[in-house]
C-alpha cells in the first residue's frame, strides 16, 4: 500500500554535508520524493512538531538542536513508506543503530542523530499537515 511520510534531515546532517547521501539512500530504495524544502525553524514550529515531548526533560536540548540551523524537510512516498523509512533510519540512539542504516553508518550520537521520520500513519498525517499543509 502506497503511503506518505515526513522525513527531516536534521541540522547535523546538513552541516556535515550528508543531505545527498541520505537522499540517495531513500531514492535507491524506490521511495518517491514528493516535496522537499530547506528551512530553519523557530521554537514554535519545534514545539508544534514535537508536541508529545514538550514536558519531557530532554526536550529543551532537542528544541535547541532542531532550531540551531537549516534542515531539509521531505515528503517521501512508497509502499509502506513509514515502516521502510524508519527501518532505513535505524535506532534513535545512533550508537546502537544497525550497520547499514543511516544512523548506524553515519552517526554516533543519541541526540544528534541525523534524521527524523513519522512513526505511524497518524503521526505522518499530523506532521505532513504541519510541514507541508498544501499537500494535506
Kindly describe this structure.
The protein has 136 residues and is an alpha+beta fold. The protein has a single domain, classed as Alpha-Beta Plaits (2-Layer Sandwich). The chain is built from seven helices and four strands, in the order βααβααβααβα. The longest helix is centred in the C-terminal third of the chain and has 11 residues, at 121-131.
How is the biggest beta sheet arranged?
4 strands, antiparallel
Which architecture per CATH? 2-Layer Sandwich
Q: Which structural class do you get from the secondary structure elements? A: alpha+beta
Average per-residue pLDDT, rounded, comes to: 96
Question: Strand percentage, roughly?
Answer: 15-25%
The number of domains is 1
The CATH class, by name, is Alpha Beta
> What is the strand tally?
4
What is the chain-wise order of helices and strands? EHHEHHEHHEH
Distance between the termini: 18 Å
What would CATH call the homologous superfamily? Answer: Nucleoside diphosphate kinase-like domain
Helix content: 40-55%
> Spans of 5+ residues with little confidence (pLDDT < 50)?
none
Q: Compute the CA-based radius of gyration.
A: 14 Å
Question: Largest beta sheet: what is the strand line-up?
Answer: 2-3-1-4
Amino acid at each position: 500500500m502506497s503511503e506518505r511520510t515526513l522525513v527531516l534531515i536534521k541540522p547535523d546532517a546538513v552541516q556535515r554535508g550528508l543531505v545527498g547521501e541520505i537522499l540517495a539512500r531513500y531514492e535507491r530504495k524506490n521511495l518517491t520524493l514528493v516535496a522537499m524544502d530547506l528551512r530553519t525553524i523557530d521554537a514554535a514550529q519545534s514545539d508544534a512538531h514535537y508536541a508529545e515531548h514538550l514536558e519531557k526533560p530532554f526536550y529543551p536540548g532537542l528544541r535547541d538542536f532542531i532550531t540551531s540551523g537549516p534542515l531539509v524537510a521531505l515528503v517521501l512516498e512508497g509502499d509502506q513508506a513509514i515502516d521502510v523509512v524508519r527501518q532505513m533510519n535505524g535506532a534513535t540512539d545512533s550508537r546502537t543503530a544497525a550497520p547499514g542504516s543511516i544512523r548506524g553508518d553515519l552517526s554516533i550520537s543519541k541526540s544528534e542523530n541525523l534524521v527524523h521520520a513519522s512513526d505511524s500513519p497518524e503521526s505522518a498525517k499530523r506532521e505532513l499537515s504541519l510541514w507541508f499543509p498544501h499537500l494535506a
